[in-house]
Amino acid sequence: MSPEPDFKYKQCLIIRNDIRMTCGKKCAQLAHAAVGAYEKTDKITRKKWFDEGMKKVTLKAGSLRELYELKSIAEAAGIATSLITDAGMTEIPPGTVTALGLGPAPSEDLDRITGDLSLL
User: Fold this and answer.
1) For the chain, give me the number of helices (H) and strands (E)?
2) How far apart (Å, rounded) are the C-alpha atoms in residues 9 and 28?
3) What is the pLDDT of residues 49-104, one digit of tens each?
4) CA atoms within 13 A of residue 57's CA, in its CB half-sphere
5) Where are the domains of the chain?
6) Distance of CA 2 to CAs 5, 27, 52, 92, 104, Å?
7) CA proximity to 59, closest of 93, 33, 86, 41
8) Fold classification of 9-119 (topology level)
9) What confidence tier does 2 reach under pLDDT thresholds 50, 70, 90?
């Protein structure tokens, strides 16, 4: 078995766990968060992340407040963020904040912000 690669960069995708959504809906919201945060990340960081395999981690936040706190901490650290607000076409009311994308950014920086969150 080959050793696990050492990823220096990753992207963290965080879904609200206090909203009832199907698995497919959660996946779509996280995909929106991934694209949104990627687009706001500088080109050099995006290339480094892309070249090493585009590591992503999906996590759960317990509330809207927690999502906003994570967003504020990440922005203060200079990490790109993307907060997703649903259009309300399917499962949840329009304007519901569902997910947050962080990075790509250095893994150690994201770990300091999201290290206490549970995996999805």
Assistant:
1) 4, 5
2) 23
3) 999 999 999 999 999 999 999 999 999 999 999 999 999 999 999 999 999 999 99
4) 21
5) 9-119
6) 9, 30, 16, 44, 25
7) 33
8) Bit1 (3.40.1490)
9) low
Type of residue at 8: K
Residue 80: exposure state from Cβ atoms within 10 A (0-12, 13-18, ≥19): buried
| pLDDT for position 81 | 98
CB hemisphere CA count around 34 (13 angstroms): 16
Q: How far apart are CA 101 and CA 14, in angstroms?
A: 6
Alpha-carbon gap, residue 86 to 66, rounded angstroms: 18
Pairing assessment for the beta strands 56-61 and 9-16 based on DSSP bridges: parallel
Give the integer Cα–Cα distance in Å for 117 and 120: 9
Residue 17 has pLDDT above 90, yes or no: yes
Q: CA-to-CA distance for 112 and 86, rounded, in angstroms?
A: 28
Q: Which helix (H) or strand (E) holds 9?
A: strand 9-16
